[in-house]
């Protein structure tokens, strides 16, 4: 049994994936724009992830743009049968790297074809519709029009399953009236727990919840409580943050992002960590601490 097998599994669409996966966003250049400073190192991280047993990689064609998907294709194509590559659409990048909405029928159709071409796939296994009603967090507003286009692309066989990202419970309910929603990808971690109720609701509906910024994103988590628990367990703070998510709910699938081989290995080893009730109680208090 490889170490990440200990994370357990959950269903994503009609595939079963390990609960510890990998998020590829950090492989693009600074600001998720342009090429990585060390292309060979980026390719090596992807290959190491899959060699270590990762079977779920999260990406988007707007990372780079195009760069991250092209790296995935170069490093891993032809893909192992068990690998699920999940992408997302709904945004595009400005010439200056700005994150812009891309919601028209032609935007969405082009984004699906860009992902298919850059990943060298005939069908995208899971596509998340990333709501841009709010750029930095979910904001209310209908997602019916773009999701209807996505559902049509699914019926054409270009997409197997659909998920949602950066969405509210109202938008998830709206989405589920349009098509089957297999996963939700929102900002969530030890210190940012707006989706606590939502996660449990989705678990009851057998829908995967995939937290983005599981380690705090561009500002990695820092907390003396987290460091204290980690030191006591002989682990690193990031490993404890990931182990906490694994123990938080059975439908949570992890996609920690890193451009570093050492960090990748460290993150995947989090599957080995067991947190006691006492550890969990201490960690659960972090969300109300002010210094995070
Ligand atoms: N749907 C959305 O709107 C959305 C938004 C953001 C991200 N995402 C997805 O979610 C995935 C995860 O989010 P993320 O990568 O932004 O954030 P993250 O996983 O929370 O954290 C990544 C940051 O933590 C650092 N890091 C990783 N492992 C570490 C370790 N063991 N020790 C110390 N630092 C470590 C990384 O730097 P190094 O490279 O130096 O390791 C990077 O700066 C992304 O890859 C992307 O696929 C989705």
Structure description:
With about 290 residues, the chain is α/β, with parallel strands linked by helices. The protein has one domain: Alpha-Beta Barrel (TIM Barrel), CATH 3.20.20.100. Helices cover about 35% and strands about 15% of the residues. The chain has 10 helices and 11 strands. The chain has helices at about 40-50, 65-75, 105-120, 145-155, 170-180, 195-205, 225-235, 235-250, 260-270, 275-285, and strands at about 10, 15-20, 20-25, 55-60, 85-90, 90-95, 100, 125-130, 160-165, 180-185, 210. The strands form 3 sheets. The chain has a 7-stranded parallel β-sheet with strand order 3-4-5-8-9-10-11, covered by helices on one side. Strands 1-2 form a two-stranded antiparallel sheet. Strands 6-7 form a two-stranded antiparallel ribbon. β3 (about 20-25), α1 (about 40-50) and β4 form a beta-alpha-beta unit. The two termini are about 35 Å apart. The site of NADP nicotinamide-adenine-dinucleotide phosphate (NAP) has 27 residues, from α9.
């Amino acid at each position: 049994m490889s170490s990440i097998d200990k994370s357990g599994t959950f269903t994503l669409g009609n595939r079963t994936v390990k609960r510890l996966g990998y998020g590829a966003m950090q492989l693009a250049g600074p600001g998720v724009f342009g090429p990585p400073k060390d292309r060979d190192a980026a390719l090596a991280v992807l290959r190491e992830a899959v060699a270590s047993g990762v079977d779920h990689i999260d990406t988007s064609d707007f990372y780079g743009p195009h760069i991250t998907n092209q790296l995935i294709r170069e490093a891993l194509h032809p893909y192992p049968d068990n690998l699920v590559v999940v992408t997302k659409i709904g945004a595009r990048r400005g010439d200056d790297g700005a994150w812009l909405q891309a919601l028209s029928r032609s935007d969405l159709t082009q984004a699906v074809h860009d992902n298919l071409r850059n990943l060298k796939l005939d069908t995208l296994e899971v596509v998340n519709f990333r709501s841009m009603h709010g750029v930095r967090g979910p904001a209310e507003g209908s997602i019916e029009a773009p999701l209807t286009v996505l559902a049509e692309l699914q019926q054409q066989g270009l997409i197997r399953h659909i998920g949602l990202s950066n969405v509210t419970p109202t938008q998830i309910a709206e989405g589920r009236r349009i098509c089957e929603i297999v996963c939700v990808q929102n900002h969530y971690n030890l210190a940012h727990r707006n989706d606590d109720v939502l996660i449990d609701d989705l678990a009851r509906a057998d829908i995967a919840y995939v937290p983005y910024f599981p380690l705090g994103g561009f500002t990695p988590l820092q907390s003396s409580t987290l460091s204290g628990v980690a030191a006591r367990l002989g682990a690193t703070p990031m490993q404890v943050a990931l182990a906490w998510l694994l123990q938080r709910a059975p439908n949570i699938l992890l996609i920690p992002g890193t451009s570093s081989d050492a960090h990748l290995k460290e993150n995947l080893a989090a599957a080995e960590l067991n947190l006691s009730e006492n550890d969990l109680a201490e960690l659960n208090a972090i969300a109300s601490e002010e210094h995070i």
